[in-house]
Amino acid sequence: MTAVTESQVSMAGALNRALADALAADPGVLVFGEDVGALGGVFRVTDGLAARFGDERVFDTPLAESGIVGTAIGMAMNGLRPVVEMQFDAFAYPAFEQITSHLAKLRNRTRGRVSLPVVIRVPYGGGIGGVEHHCDSSEAYYTHTPGLRVVTPGTPDDAYRLLRDSIDSPDPVIFLEPKRRYWAKGSLDQATSIGFDRALVRRTGRDVTLIAYGPMVATALETAEAAKEEGWDVEVVDLRSLAPFDDETVCASVRKTGRAVVVHEASGFGGYGAEVVARVTERCFHHLHAPVLRVTGFDIPYPPPKLEEHHLPSVDRILDAVARLQWDDEVVGVRGA
C-alpha cells in the first residue's frame, strides 16, 4: 500500500480512495453495480472512478443482483478481481443463492483448485432516515455461511485498509459498510496495518468490555466517555472481522474486565451477538463476574424513520445494560478508586 497520512477524510472518501488505488495497482480489478458508473453510486463511494479508469473497468449493471454476483463469479473464475456494490443491504437478498451456494462453496467444491477473489460491498444498517429494504443489518446471514469472510469498518482508516485487504484476498469477502458513518471523518494512515482478521481495542478500560463493530463502534466509544460519569472504566473492542472471529483479542479483554456487553443494530434473536456471547462464555466463564449481555435492535422489521432512534442501540440503552451487570464496589476500578 502507498504510505499516506491524511486527516479529516470521510469514510466514503476513504473507500473511494481504496477502490482507486486498487484499480491503479491491478488491471484485473473491476468495479460494477447499479449506478456506480456516471452517478458514482447512491452514496458517491465510486464517484469519479469511471471517468478515471474507463467504463470497461467501472460500469453500471442492470437492476439484477443475482446476475451481478453471478457475473462476478464467472469473472473471478477467469482470473479477474471483481468488486461489486449491492447499493442497499436488503437489495442483496435476490443474490443470496449465488452467494451462499456458489461464491462461498466453490473453493471447497473444487478441493482448492478454484478460488474466487470477489468483494461484495453492502451498505448496511440504519440511522439515515431510510425505510425497510434500505436499513437492514444482514451480517448474521453471511457469517453463518462457511467460505465467506465478513468484515466491517468502524472508521475511515479501517475502511481504506480493510477494503484494500479484501480486494487482495484470494477468497470472497462480504464487505459491510455502515451507511450512517459514510460522512463521519477521521484520519487516514494506510502505512499502519493491524491484520485483516484481527479485532482492535479502541479504548482501554478495567471494569467492563463493550464489544461492537461497524456503526456501533462510535456509539460504544461515546458510551465509554459517558460511563466515566457513573464511575465505570469501560474498554471498547472493535471486532472489524466478523468472520473469522478474533477470539484471542476479545477474550483477553473480557478476562481482564470480567464483564461484557455486546452491541449491534441487528435484531437480537438469532443475531450475531448471540454467537459472540456463546464464544465469550465458553472461553471466559471462570473469569466472568456477571452474565454477558446484549444491546441490539428490537425483534421487529426495520421501523419507519420517526421511530428508528428508539430502535437503534443508544448511549442510554448501553449504559442501562452496563448498570444491570452484577457490580461490586470493591472490584470496580474508577468507582472504587
Shape category: globular
| Strands ordered across the widest β-sheet | 3-2-4-5-7-6-12
Please give the alpha-carbon distance between the first and last residues.
45 Å
Number of helices, where a helix is a run of at least 4 consecutive DSSP H or I residues: 13
Q: Give Rg in angstroms.
A: 20 Å
Whole-number average pLDDT? 94
Query: Which sheet architecture does the biggest sheet show?
Result: 7 strands, mixed
Spans where pLDDT lies below 50 across 5 or more residues: 333-337
Structural class: alpha/beta
Order of helices and strands: EHEHEHEHHEHEHEEEEHEEHEHEHHH
Give the % helix: 25-40%
Q: Which percent band covers the strand fraction?
A: 15-25%
| Overall number of strands | 14
Task: Provide a short characterization of the protein structure.
By secondary structure, the chain is an alpha/beta fold. It has 13 helices and 14 strands.
Structural summary, described in words:
With about 325 residues, the protein is α/β, with parallel strands linked by helices. The protein contains 13 helices and 14 strands. Strands 3-2-4-5-7-6-12 form a 7-stranded mixed β-sheet, sandwiched between helices. A 5-stranded mixed β-sheet has the order 9-11-10-13-14, sandwiched between helices. Strand 2, helix 2 (about 50-55) and strand 3 (about 60) form a beta-alpha-beta unit. The termini are far apart.
